[in-house]
Design brief:
The chain has 1 helix and 19 strands. It is mainly β and 460 residues long. The protein is globular, with a radius of gyration of 24 Å. The relative contact order is 0.11.
């Protein structure tokens, strides 16, 4: 329903633009009457990643070490017809190469994928209102709520100290040209997201966020046999709402403080499936249950850009996401993130190695960053992970071992991150991390896992 409404608005706005241009043959009053000529541009990006992981199972007998080399080539063609209408078309080729695995064996594959593909209408009704239709990137400054490409209709309005963004869409099939179906986690999912930003004072602002996630894909009944790669184990109708306060303020003549505070809640209903293996790469549904979802989370912190020797930037933060005492009964009170949050290396807010969702966890962080050269920096960060309620699982953590559900201390992570941007078209990221398991892993407590990651991006 939401998509139909936004689609009708899109068609109406497009009709207004076309008919207005034809009837008046003139631009809005605040546009240069001479205008700018139509123009087009081609840009590209080539990215390589080298990822090494050691002992993610916390048990050397598992021989789970991994060395992987990934490539991504992007090519973007953009065309601006006039001051009102512009287009973008993007294609990608992804390459994944497993160079070494502890158990032996190598694998290499390439995958073409569609990227952003949209038409944008600007200066609607002579105002700072734009409409974008097609596959596009939705991004908010911290990337805590969302930073992802979606097939959608998006609207953006800016006026003085206000900004409003609205999007609605549903994933189209075949994001990857090698597949003839969508990822089961995204298939049939309708999303409506909105953000309002108010700059109420210089360098200080408030944001309101809203996201609706409605999985409209059919849910199989008990006893149904499904393809193993075509069904996920959860269908949900959830909505998130929240607020953010953020800003910065100089202190005396030698320092600047900045801060952020995010508060969020998630409500809705979720249907769970239990699946068992069946013959012929199929699975059978053995049970089906429904639960209400009620969760909350906070993420807050401060940064101090000091003028001490070497000009260090200090960060102190704390995040907590609610957990559920009774994971098998009643309402699920564990928070979960939107699924659209950023996973880029620079924005892995909750660690490089573990990378969990903020669900049933408390995560304090201390970090210090030092500038190196003119456009580069080095950062050291420490995080401690502790469950709110002891549970035998983590939501989306990368450590392969499971907690015992008795103790709460998940562990500690140390990270060293460097971003180098000394050249116009080249960016280099270097990340090293170590994780020490806590007593939540029982006999594996104290075991270490390690990761090394390098990414080089060349833009042309």
């Amino acid at each position: 329903m939401a998509i139909r409404v936004v689609a009708l608005i899109s068609v109406f706005c497009l009709a207004v633009v076309i008919t207005g241009a034809g009837a008046q043959n003139a631009k809005p009053p605040d546009i240069d009457p001479n205008g700018e000529p139509a123009s087009w541009d081609i840009e590209g990006e080539y990215e390589v990643k080298l990822d090494y992981r050691k002992n993610f199972a916390l048990d050397r007998r598992n021989r789970d070490d991994l060395l992987r080399f990934d490539q991504e080539f992007q090519l973007r063609w953009s065309y601006r017809y006039n001051d009102w209408i512009s287009f973008l078309l993007e294609g990608k080729v992804l390459g994944e190469h497993q160079l070494y695995t502890g158990g032996g064996g190598r694998r290499s594959e390439f995958e073409p994928e569609r990227g952003e593909t949209w038409v944008r209408l600007d200066q609607l009704f002579g105002r700072d209102l734009s409409l974008k239709i097609g596959r596009q990137n939705f991004e908010e400054p911290r990337r805590w709520w969302w930073d992802d490409d979606l097939d959608a209709v998006g609207m953006r309005y800016r006026h003085d100290s206000w900004l409003f963004e609205l999007g609605a869409g549903r994933e189209l099939p075949r994001k990857s040209l090698r597949e003839d179906f969508s990822d089961p986690e995204h298939e049939g999912v309708v999303r409506v997201l909105a953000r309002t930003h108010w700059r109420y004072f210089k360098n200080h602002g408030l944001d309101l966020f809203f996201l609706l996630h409605n999985d409209t894909s059919p849910t199989p009944s008990v006893g149904a046999v499904v393809k193993a790669d075509r069904e996920d184990d959860s269908d949900a109708r959830l909505w998130w709402g929240g607020i953010r306060a953020s800003g910065s303020e100089p202190v005396a003549a030698h320092a600047e403080f900045s801060y952020w505070t995010d508060a969020a809640m998630v409500l809705g209903k979720e249907t769970f499936l239990e699946l068992d293996n069946a013959s012929g790469n199929r699975e059978v549904v053995t049970s089906r249950s429904k639960r209400r979802v009620r969760g909350w989370a906070f993420d807050l912190g401060v940064r101090w850009a000091s003028q001490l020797p070497a000009e260090p930037l200090f960060t102190f933060g704390y995040a907590i996401g609610s957990g559920d005492k009774k994971s098998e009964k009643g309402t699920d009170r564990a928070f979960r993130q939107t699924g659209l949050q950023s996973t880029d290396e620079e924005f892995r807010i909750y660690g490089e190695l573990l990378q969990p969702e903020l669900s049933n966890l408390s995560i304090p962080v201390i970090a210090v960053q030092f500038p190196i050269f003119s456009k580069s920096y080095l950062e050291f960060a420490y995080r401690h992970f502790r469950q709110v309620h002891a549970a035998p699982f983590l939501r989306d953590g990368r450590i392969e071992a499971e907690p015992n559900g008795i103790k709460k201390n998940i562990g500690q992570e140390w990270m060293l991150y460097s971003l180098i941007k000394q050249w116009k078209n080249i960016e280099i990221e270097l990340v090293g991390a170590a994780f020490r398991a806590g007593n939540a892993y029982g006999a594996l407590s104290g075991k270490m896992a390690y990761s090394l990651f390098t990414k080089i991006t060349y833009e042309f």
